[in-house]
């Protein structure tokens, strides 16, 4: 069987998944026209096949991995082409969006006749020798999505309808990025008050896994802080605007926004965090 | 050497530390008049010696372990008695208070001539066979506080002045209780959206230490949530009212307040959290 998969944008994640699929014998279509040089290079390196929106609509499976803000727009743009191709495609929305947004994508695609699966990707983009990210899927198209396992992807069905896979992704990100934000906030306070050395010792002694997480996850965060602002807002909406919990992630959005601004300015806050982090590394 | 230590209130922590001190040969004074039956029983079980405020003021070391809201009041009440006894005591404020409040306690005691150490206790009250809580101390009285090591306490000097030990305690609590609050919030959302089973699996796989923390720390929290509200507010103030970070702990205070109310009402939220927690336990 030669399967054709469309990945509309060959970003870091889309290009990485595309490379795995082509290495396993799939034809992988993508749009490169008007995209950045980096995207075009990733598509070429992954042996993806350039096409246009009409071409994407003819694929057996469309795997949408785009910036969360354009998830609905991407589905809407491809919908007429999917319909024109007979509506036989499976559309997997694998974006970091809330369950409500995932359901909106499903509604946009309903008239096309395409099957739909909600998806959520956990883990960083594939790297040689690294662990594969996992693609969690839920909803009516789940069974059909499992064929991607034969093409090298780590596909995992989630019990539940459209929304469950997106909720899973939101929840996992809420815990991970919540913990990193807490560590970034507390690290600064500890250093300002002269308690950094003692705190790193306490963490190593009582919670070695959290200490290890601080060592690794804090520096990974600095260059991504600006992207996490919108993601924290999305998580806050997902948790429910009327619930007290959502204010935690609303505050985290502001913390990441401040860190992104700090990174672009004098780096004072990130300097304090790094002072703390290096103590942990030495602990 | 027979040392006399005053622990004004034999609460769970004060009584527990008192028992260790008396077992190691110290005379430990406490006030029981007007206290609850539980406090009087703890004092007796720990072989503490009942006295009044004047008696407490005569001790070599006064170890203040009281509800945070009465830390300053306790110091102010004992101050004239410490002065009357010649101001030779060492006063250790070991309460969960912000560095600013610890500095205020030091100011209250300055006219007495007593030495002062800021303290912070990390860990639960002593239990037979359990790990001892650690008493972190900073400020001018630190050297003198080390004598409590000979009496069985795990005393750890923190470099820095009055405030550093309190900051350490605040920072450690901010991380621990911040993570628990995040887990409690996300657990509910995951269960509401049908993603609980998948999330527990992802946590076990990717962050086994956080999964283990969820299993143990969530049920420990339910009966304490009402106490954590004020502690989260204190942490928010400590982080700085003008800083974005403080809003995270302000929101956590509301989350714990809601959980305390839930616990007293229908337990719907805690029921969802427990559903999630049991999945992790089974994972």
Automatic annotation (TrEMBL), chains A, B:
Superkingdom to which the source organism belongs: Bacteria
Ranges where the Phosphogluconate dehydrogenase NAD-binding putative C-terminal domain occurs: 190-258
Domain 6-phosphogluconate dehydrogenase NADP-binding positions: 11-123
Protein name, entry field: DUF1932 domain-containing protein
């Amino acid at each position: 069987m030669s399967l054709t998969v469309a990945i509309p944008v060959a970003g870091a994640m889309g290009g990485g998944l595309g490379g795995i699929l082509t290495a396993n014998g799939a034809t992988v279509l993508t749009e490169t026209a008007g995209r950045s040089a980096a995207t075009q290079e990733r598509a070429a390196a992954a042996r993806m096949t350039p096409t246009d929106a009409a071409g994407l609509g003819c694929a057996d499976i469309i795997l949408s991995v785009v910036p969360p803000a354009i998830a609905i727009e991407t589905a809407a743009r491809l919908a007429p082409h999917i319909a024109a191709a007979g509506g036989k495609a499976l559309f997997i929305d694998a974006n970091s969006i809330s369950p409500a947004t995932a359901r909106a994508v499903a509604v946009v695609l309903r008239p096309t006749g395409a099957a739909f699966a909600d998806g959520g990707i956990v883990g960083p983009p594939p790297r040689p020798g690294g662990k594969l990210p996992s693609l969690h899927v839920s909803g009516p198209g789940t069974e059909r999505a499992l064929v991607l396992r034969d093409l090298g992807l780590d596909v995992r069905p989630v019990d539940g309808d459209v929304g469950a896979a997106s909720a899973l992704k939101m929840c996992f990100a809420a815990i991970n990025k919540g913990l990193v934000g807490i560590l970034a906030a507390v690290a600064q306070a500890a250093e300002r008050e002269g308690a950094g050395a003692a705190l790193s010792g306490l963490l190593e002694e009582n919670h070695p896994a959290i200490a290890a997480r601080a060592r690794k996850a804090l520096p990974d965060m600095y260059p991504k802080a600006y992207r996490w602002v919108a993601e924290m807002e999305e998580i806050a909406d997902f948790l429910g605007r009327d619930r007290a919990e959502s204010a935690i992630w609303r505050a985290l959005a502001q913390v990441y926004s401040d860190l992104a601004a700090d990174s672009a300015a004098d780096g004072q806050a990130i300097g304090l965090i790094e002072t703390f982090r290096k103590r942990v590394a030495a602990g």
